[in-house]
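Page 42, continued from yesterday. The earlier attempt failed because a stray header line got pasted into the input along with the sequence. Redoing it now with the clean sequence only.
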Amino acid sequence: MAMNAKTILLSLSLVAGINLPAWSADLETVTVAGGCFWCVESDFESVRGVTEAVSGFSGGQVRNPTYKQVTSGGTGHREAVQITFDPSVISIEQIYAMFLRSIDVTDAGGQFCDRGKSYTTAIYSASSEQAAAAKAAIAKAEAELGRSVVTPIETLKSFYPAEAYHQDYYKSRDRVLTRFGLVSKAKAYKKYRTACGRDARVAELWGSSAPFARGH
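This time it went through. Structure tokens are written below.
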């Protein structure tokens, strides 16, 4: 009988007496839109229990859209991120709570310096369980803020990964020509994030509850 990689590793560990870290076979994935997908990807790839975050597009009617198409408008898509996580380490409720406290949930016109439909926020549910968890997270966020949350919950119909150029942008050493000059993507990303005011606004809105706001 064929053995998968996990079975092989576990067998070897028993023979060699090696203690392997806990491994969940049941990873889960949620899809969210929080403005700039570079920022959401960067935030969640730093979270213990998250195994991957992929930048892409969701919510629209155009199949396999390009970044240029989405940001130009008319596709119905938002910049979105699929977050895959180990629920034995971090719960979906924690993921949604962190997400809502990493964005401006009161802004229906975009996020920070990025305006328009493609930069608005949303939670895309892939099941009734995800929808229920998202609804509960929004209710808690509204109670904490004392204000309405405009981030909608929508049914996930499709998710299209963005071009390879956009994946892991926040940590890439590839150099690009930007308004900041010829710099690495990582440096351009940091300058953009600061100039866009993301962390400053999130810290203003959420205070100590903001999980990712840096230096504010």
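Notes: The CA atoms of residues 181 and 189 lie 12 Å apart.
Reminder to self: strip header lines before submitting.
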